[in-house]
Design goal:
Layout lengths: L1 H15 L6 H4 E5 L4 E3 L7 E2 L4 H4 L8 H11 L8 H7 L8 H7 L3 H9 L10 E5 L17 H10 L30 H17 L2 E5 L7 H12 L7 E5 L6 H10 L5 E6 L4 H7 L5 H14 L4 E8 L7 H15 L5 E6 L13 H18 L7 H16 L10 H19 L3 H4 L1 H9 L1
Parallel strand pairs: 1-4, 4-5, 5-6, 6-7, 7-8, 8-9
Antiparallel strand pairs: 1-2, 2-3
């Protein structure tokens, strides 16, 4: 199965263009609270014109910036904002980047149609990830105030994180008020544009609509959209998917499943380590509650799919094999699709990248993952993409030496690693050294 992706890249994708990606035409992530859009979660987001989008809701996706990148891809050029995939592909070793995974889900006819379209033409989406606002009860270490109101409270109560020198985007220095341009009670032209586009075209063209956040189950717009599906049976063939941190009591999940009765629902959640590691990295998480909620959802039999997204950072690697064991335990109990998982290598903030770790520790983690894969790669419980993601991570730890940083400088990244977690501990009542004793000696010397 692994060769399927390689063959698709060589026989389909690269014949259209060596830099072609279907996501640039058919996929988008849109943050309606801020009016920001991007073609997937890798390229930097950019702002949609709030005046023009009222007249043309399709501008939520079909921006000047994306049309420029489409033209580059049609010519075989690499848009710089997509450098995550170029970095993966340039590793060699037949490395499969996300542009392959994000293109293979569309039909070959659709991809040929896209590459031949005039670059300035508006395109209707097929897959969409959308956030209505940033309301969230978690404040994960690799997140920031642009995506979490709990992060906003941290900065409001404790001030900016200080002495960070590699964080050119200022993730932790201000409350990112531009991420929520309109109060919850105010009319938001981006939300209005989405529902207008949804009523006219999107409910017909979308294969999957995925609601993210923040925590989407805390947004009234999420429940409004669920009601639309409930009240319009058969009108749309779009699969509804929801991201959730599962940081709730079981009552909230019962409410969700009841509201979605008769709707094909997929649920995505996030985690990448176990126990105290998970609770440290994903501040607000209760590991036992998360596991119990996973069990409840899988036992319910009411989900079309349950997906676990792993954000691979410097701190999760120590217990990542144990986390993968947990995935296999559940797969064995509930079938290989419940859950399935992806391993997504963290880009920003760069000082939390696994590549900031010293060579000996990084090599140790690489070998542990290699041994895990050797033991389990022939298991019928693992999907091809799960095996490929593991191979990609192993190669990444082995080959890639520089994190995704606007101005790469390892001493600066090490400075920020130490500065950030010292302040994180004080603000969150945590202890890096007691939680991660394997890293304690190196951490002390930074």
């Amino acid at each position: 199965m692994s060769n399927t992706y390689k063959e698709f890249k060589e026989q389909v994708l690269d014949t259209l263009s060596p830099s072609f990606c279907g996501a640039k035409w058919y996929n988008a992530t849109i943050w309606l609270g801020s009016g920001m859009t991007t073609s997937c979660h890798h390229p930097p987001a950019h702002l949609v014109d709030s005046d023009k989008v009222t007249a043309n809701p399709k501008l939520l996706h079909n921006t000047f910036e994306k049309k420029r990148d489409r033209e580059m891809m049609q010519k075989g050029q690499r848009p710089p904002g997509c450098e995550y995939c170029w970095k993966i592909e340039d590793m060699g070793k037949d490395s499969i980047s996300d542009r392959v995974y994000k293109s293979v889900i569309y039909g070959e006819e659709d991809l040929i149609h896209a590459v031949n379209l005039p670059a300035d033409e508006d395109v209707d989406l097929k897959t969409l990830e959308i956030a209505f606002d940033r309301t969230c009860q978690f404040a994960c270490s690799y997140c920031n105030p642009a995506f979490s109101t709990t992060w906003v409270k941290d900065l409001r109560n404790n001030g900016s994180y200080e002495n960070l020198i590699s964080d050119g985007r200022g993730h932790f220095t201000h409350k990112h008020d531009s991420a929520q341009r309109y109060k919850i009670s105010e009319t938001n032209p981006y939300v209005e544009a989405f529902f207008a586009w949804w009523e006219t075209d999107l409910h017909r063209t979308l294969q999957e609509l995925r609601i993210t956040g923040g925590e989407p189950l805390m947004s009234g717009h999420t429940w409004k959209l669920i009601d639309w599906f409930k009240n319009n049976p058969g009108r749309s063939k779009t699969t509804l998917a929801i991201n959730s941190n599962l940081g709730f009591g079981q009552e909230k999940l019962e409410q969700l499943l009841e509201a979605c009765d008769g709707i094909e629902l997929e649920l995505y959640t996030s985690n990448e380590s176990v126990g105290a590691h998970a609770e440290y990295i994903r501040d607000g998480l209760d590991w036992k509650q998360w596991c119990n909620n996973m069990e409840f959802l899988m036992q319910s039999g009411k989900l079309r799919g349950l997906h676990v997204m792993n954000t691979i950072n410097a701190l999760c690697l120590e217990s990542l094999p144990e986390f993968l064991d947990k995935m296999l335990e559940w797969k064995s109990k509930y079938t290989r699709d419940f859950p399935n998982f992806t391993l997504n290598i963290l880009r920003f903030p760069s000082f939390q990248s696994p590549l900031v770790l010293p060579d000996d520790i990084r090599s140790m983690h690489k070998e542990r993952l290699e041994n895990w894969l050797i033991e389990h790669k022939h298991s019928d419980l693992l999907h091809a993409h799960e095996i490929d993601h593991l191979k990609r991570l192993i190669d990444y730890l082995d080959v890639v030496k520089t994190p995704h940083s606007e101005a790469f400088d390892m001493p600066a990244l090490h400075n920020d690693f130490k500065q950030f977690y010292e302040q994180y501990d004080l603000r969150r009542n945590k202890s890096f050294e007691s939680t991660f004793p394997l890293l304690a000696g190196w951490y002390e010397e930074l």
